[in-house]
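Course assignment 3, question 2. Fill in each field.
Student: A.L.
Task: Predict the tertiary structure for the chain below.
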Amino acid sequence: MTRKDGHPWNRREFLQGVGATVATASMMPQVQAQGKLPVAGHSDWTRFGYDLHNTRFNSREATLNAGNVGRLRPKWRHEIPAPIQTSPTVVGDTLFTGAWDGHYHALDAETGEPKWKYDADIKPEPRWGLRTLKSTAEYNRGRIYFGTGTGDLACVDGASGKEIWKTNMGPGLFISSSPTIYGNRIFIGTSGGNAQIICVDAETGAIRWRFKIVPDRDGGGGSSWTASAIDEEQNIVYSTTGNPSSYNPPGPLLFTDSILANDLETGELLWYYQVRATDPFDLDFSCHPMLFEATHPERSAAHRRCVGAGSKTGFHAFDRDTGEHLWTTGVTNGGPTLNSTAYGDDKIYMVSNGAAGYETIARSATVGLHAWTGEILWWTPNASSSQGAAAYANGLFYQGFRDGTLQALDTETGEPLWSYQLPAPRRGGIVISNGTLYAICGGANSPPYAVYAFGL
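Answer field:
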């Protein structure tokens, strides 16, 4: 593939720090109508993957480190009357999160006090939440964007919670994934009858292009469950897809259980790699694609551009430009699920769950992998399996488990340096922003459902 013109400067850092261009006072309920935006912080977490490359690596966080993380204590908690499956979005003094009660909530990031909540006009589903809010919001230029279980992509004013626009992605589609915004384009994956990757205009909500993962017929499969990643130099959007579902066993279908590379301007498919053509065991990609640069273990001048993602069998790495398969590393007899991977400092961090019924094998293990070879650099067994997005910042990998345990690991050794016991399973994501750890408590039918903030 050849480099495309039209981007004379690197937009990755620009978009990462776009919140820093809006400096305002905090929002109190009585002045919401004045439209005051959140006060931006230096190391805000403004989108699901933190950056356009989806690394979940806050490269600007400098407060929490291996020497002081053991002093983390709860600062506040805010309960919401429904499960929370999103990852918090933090912009200075404001935190945004969606819940199965059908609302997006804005909280004061310092105190947990509510600022506003937006009614997505969907019926709450207290048991499974299949058609409710699971999409992590992205903050961009004073607005937040997120999908809903009824297939709507919503744009909401970040100061007041007022709806700016809402566009339905099409009949039979719903959204569990999180949006990725680049310039004036939003990229969102859908689930349901005819799963698609869709590009939407950020200003108007108009659909620019669609890429169909499965054919136009009744059924399901190929769902895109999580956020896409952007190569801003080559103008490519990368996405991962799920199993054939009701199309299985009649198959194969070319784009299920796959990683896709599409031209972000037109939607043209540039390459894809299908891990398995048919999949009766639901071994799909439920982790986000991550873009990373890998360095050769013996030749420090040798680098290669990679894209990788975790499936339920392990982590798979590819050449970002050609789609060539580079390596796959499996650790347990299962794999990472629900975005339990991150990248930083030439390592892939992965929480791999074991398959049920194999108690002699570790229920879960966290590993550090060499980004060039996939070699296991360290291995830490876990007492419980993982669910929900992990995070990396300043030499620490943050993870959470079904038994409610939160942990911070040293990324050089895998040694646990901090642990905290939540009163219910951890289900939503973990983020690190401006010296604070934010985490979600509670799973389906496992209250209390709450957002937690931890500080030194």
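Instructor remarks: Helices lie at 11-16. The radius of gyration is 20 Å.
Grade: pending
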